Amino acid sequence: MTRNQIIGLISTIVLAILLAGSLYVVKEGEYKVVLRFGEAMRTVEEPGLRLKIPFIENVSALPKYQMTYESSPTSILTKDQKPIVVDNYTVWRITNASQFLRTVQSVGGGIQRIDEAVYNSVRRKLSEVNYENIISEDTGRGNINDEITNDVIAALTRDNYGIEVIDVRIKRTDLPEENKQSVYNRMISDRQSIAARYLSEGDEESKKITSKADRSSRELMAQAEADSKKIIAEGEGEAARIYNQAYGKSPEFYSFYRTLESYVTTLKNEPVIMMPIDSPYAKILMGQ
Q: Distance between CA atoms of 164 and 72, rounded to whole angstroms?
């Protein structure tokens, strides 16, 4: 191999090395930040093949898509001094790759800043709420999550890390194992007290309703009895009037009728009667 061939081969190798060191590829879903002596010079977002200055510039890749970070379970005191274990997750993404590298250097560094902001906000917000309101279905858990999200967004925007927080959500709020049984027993006792109060109120209301019904019943019976006596009296008076009117038309028949009635009463049990044979009563019995 001649000297010119050797020089040409060396030049080709050097050129290939320089060319390889000058090219880099930007993939879909990532940022490429071009660094010069460790300082971010520019950010490339569009996918494709790009050029850089070999040996002077190098490239750092950062994710462009949304990421989810799950915090480790943390013990926090509520407003009523109940220790609870809280874990949550954060949806976030990098919006300014150059600023992100200048301030936190890596995804791990960004997660650390997010974790600090989320912990501070969660601890502060939950310390303003009683435990029973945190676990209740009727309380504004969604409002607490929204407040924490806004709080974290404000903190990270203020520090300008090049991070955008999309959402922060509490996954679980639970009691430490050593506190669960005592709290559950107290909750059971409270529910039993409420149930006893409801039963007592129901029993009292039942007595009121029963007493009112009995009083109404007695009043109705008394009124009905008074009405019946009045109707009977009116009926008896009407019957007496009809009898008097009928008997007044024939006094002899009435006298005869009354005599027959007396016979029925007198002879009802077949008694032995002694009377003069010439008495009017005896003559009627003998058909004279």
A: 21
Angle of the 177-249 helix axis to the 251-266 helix axis, nearest 10: 120
* Rounded-to-5 percentages of helix, strand, coil across the chain: 60, 20, 20
Positive or negative, the Cα torsion across 157, 162, 167, 170?
negative
Residue 27 carries which DSSP code? P
Please name the residue that has the structure tokens 């008896």: 236
For residue 35, the cross-strand partners are 40, 58
**Token duo for residue 137:** 């279905």
Torsion of CA 137, 138, 141, 142, to 10 degrees: 110
Give dist(CA 195, CA 200) in Å, integer. Answer: 9
Q: Which of 112, 144, 174 is the last residue of a domain?
A: 174
CA distance 35 to 14: 23
Alpha-carbon distance of 92 to 90, in angstroms, equals 6
Q: Look at the alpha carbons of 255, 258, 264, 270 in this order and tell me if their dihedral is positive or negative.
A: negative
Closest to 117 (Cα-Cα) out of 172, 155, 88: 155
Task: For residue range 198-243, list pLDDT tens digits in order.
Answer: 888 888 888 889 888 888 888 899 888 888 888 988 888 888 787 7
- Residue 231 in any domain: the answer is no
Report the pLDDT value the prediction gives residue 280, as an integer from 0 to 100. 67
Residue 24 and residue 86 share a domain? no
Together in a domain, 84 and 55? no
Q: How many C-beta atoms lie closer than 10 Å to residue 251's C-beta?
A: 9
The amino acid sitting at 99 is Q
| Structural domain count, the chain | 3
Name the residue range of residue 266's domain: 247-285
List of the chain residues with pLDDT < 50? 137-140
CA 60 from centre of chain: 49
One domain, residues 91 and 132: yes
Q: Is residue 218 part of a domain?
A: no
For residue 79, give the amino acid letter: K
